[in-house]
Amino acid sequence: MPQLSSGGGDDLGANDEMIAFKDEGEQEEKIQENAFTERDLADLKSSLVNESEINQSPNTAAVRRGQQGEHRVFQDKHREHLEGVSKQQDGGMYKSPAYPGYPFLMLPDPYLPNSSVSPSSNKVSVVQQSHGMHPLTSLLPYSNDHFSPSPPHLPTDMSQKTGVHRHQSQDLSGYYSLPPGGVGQITPSMSWFPHSLMLGPSGVHPTGIPHPAIVPSSGKQEHDQYDRGMYMKPQMEVKREKEPKKPVIKKPLNAFMLYMKEMRAKVIAECTLKESAAINQILGRRWHALTREEQAKYYELARKERQLHMQLYPTWSARDNYEAGLSGVAGEKSKADWGKKKRRKREKQQDSNTGGKRSAFATFKEEAAPAHLLQI
DNA sequence: CGTCCTTTGAAGTAT
DNA sequence: ATACTTCAAAGGACG
């Protein structure tokens, strides 16, 4: 039982979340890069173009894999190094957030109708409002009040939930001063949700808790519903009601995803690029250019997202969404079904390694990242 | 319309 | 224990 194996002191792998940091030498270099000036952008674009040149190799995928693997090995090396730091964080930093500015970052706008964040109230806007916001992200004003020992709105269903297989985070009970009742007793304030959301047709969690993270399993479009659909116009709601879909609870966003959400619009504006694959490459490089502290903010946010997600959906498993779009029913995939996509992907990798057709994106990069971008 | 691309990280399965 | 795979977001491209 993997979930249990990480129990005890581990907090959803929080201790491992600091592993992505670079070594000191590179760190310095990255810190310099981190001054995101126009020059930085030019560098990034230049790098992107260079990458595209590299990627012309038929073994692009393999090369990338190799690089990734290298990087991960490197991360592992630093896992040890950072472990002490991480533990310190669990014991100290997380109990008293090291980033007093961000805990209330994204609360107001989408969840308080027609409200907006006071620009002066935030140090960091972690999630781009223009892109809407991940439902859980938006659930995370990260005030400890939400986990106060006396939850203001305790959904009755939650404590009655049976068959809970997600372990309760030790850290959670420690950090949020949880009552000794377990998951069912921990209930974040539902004041995060706008009333319209509370009444939404799709946002009903198995526990009975309405939540925007639950979206109809209608493929990719669910993303939009995720961000904007929670405030769907009545017409849309009617339409959705007509064709009810099995709700899908999305994975909580990891640190990098949170970072991407925040920075995407910025990069798009700077680059005048819209292609997400290219944007993501830039964001990936920027991510590595972040300082420890900057990354830590997102790791912390991601950690809390996972915590909250686990509280809200104690029975949810990442596996539920594996091929959910194909099965239509989350969590019903058999072990026989499990390998289908896997094999497909393996075949694809073999294809690329044996000089298969070039990706459309490679072509795109050659065309979309021409020299004129370097002049910025 | 569904899938791919591309990134990192979390969590799952397979060996 | 380690390796590998899937999925989170995003939106244009493509079959």
TrEMBL record:
What keywords are assigned to this protein?
Activator, DNA-binding, Nucleus, Repressor, Transcription, Transcription regulation, Wnt signaling pathway
The GO terms describing molecular function are: DNA-binding transcription factor activity, RNA polymerase II-specific; RNA polymerase II cis-regulatory region sequence-specific DNA binding
Q: Compositional bias of type Basic and acidic residues: which residue ranges?
A: 19-43, 67-84
Q: Which residues form the HMG box domain?
A: 249-317
Location in the cell reads:
Nucleus
- Location of the region described as Disordered in the Swiss-Prot/TrEMBL record: 1-94, 333-376
Of the GO CC terms on this record, one is:
chromatin
| Keyword Repressor tagged | yes
- Where's DNA bound on this chain? 249-317
Gene Ontology annotations of biological process type: canonical Wnt signaling pathway; cell proliferation in dorsal spinal cord; endothelial cell fate specification; heart development; midbrain development; positive regulation of cell population proliferation; rostrocaudal neural tube patterning
Matching Gene3D superfamilies: High mobility group box domain (1.10.30.10), TCF3-CBD (Catenin binding domain) (4.10.900.10)
User: Biased composition, Polar residues: where in the chain?
Assistant: 47-60
- Per UniProt, the ranges with Gly residues bias are 1-11
Keyword check for Oxidoreductase, yes or no. Answer: no
Supply the InterPro entries for this chain: Catenin-bd_sf, CTNNB1-bd_N, HMG_box_dom, HMG_box_dom_sf, TCF/LEF
Record's family? Belongs to the TCF/LEF family.
| Protein name (database record) | Transcription factor 7
